[in-house]
Amino acid sequence: MGQGEASARGTTMEGDCLSCIKYLMFVFNFLIFLGGSFLLGVGVWVLVDPTGFREIVAANPLLFTGVYIILGMGGMLFLLGFLGCCGAIRENKCLLLFFFMLILLIFLAELAAAILAFIFREHLTREYFTKELKRHYQGYNNTDVFTSTWNAIMTTFDCCGVNSPEDFKDSLFKLINPNHMVPEACCQRASQAGELAYISQEQCLSGSMMFRNNKGCYSAVVDYFELYIYVAGALAIVVLTIELFAMVFAMCLFRGIQ
Of 40, 114, 51, which Cα lies nearest the Cα of 75? Predict the structure, then answer.
């Protein structure tokens, strides 16, 4: 009789623990679902906004790319949260297994990205960017991806070159444009009638320091993203920890379902 009571008590405790895991997993995935829905909503609103915000974003390649990154992240989180919620509340083994596999793939992809970033960290140095800029940058050319990307960076961050405007000496840009000391993207701009226009483009192109941006883009970008880099690193650690717990919870719930 005592053995039967102990067995029943153990079964009850196991059931309570399983129920706790199920509801914790549901709440956790519901928050992920809401976050994904919010990101999807923001991305779709920017793309279809009739007030002209879409044109502002489309005019800047960096912002335009960021919109699609937001849409991709929102869609992934939306699907992940939906699968986790349905799998937990319905105690569906197929959905829980699919959720576990999806989380595992994301975790492995993030791990691979971290390893690749560590391996290719020397490609993020000033010397590497300077060498690539001298070798490939052509000037105001929207058809070349490398050039248009650098133009977007220099106009967005009000900077010139990697270290300074001197980077364009002895470069491909100088060979193509022998009469210009710096490209148009380095010239200072001011707001006129609601639009940005160059202050004195001719003097800027001829090398006048008064009408060009003299700060290097490497320092400008690092200074701008310094806080975000630390925040992103902290968030990455939190996300990886949450993903590990999510996989453990999903597998515990999967094995506990009879």
Answer: 40
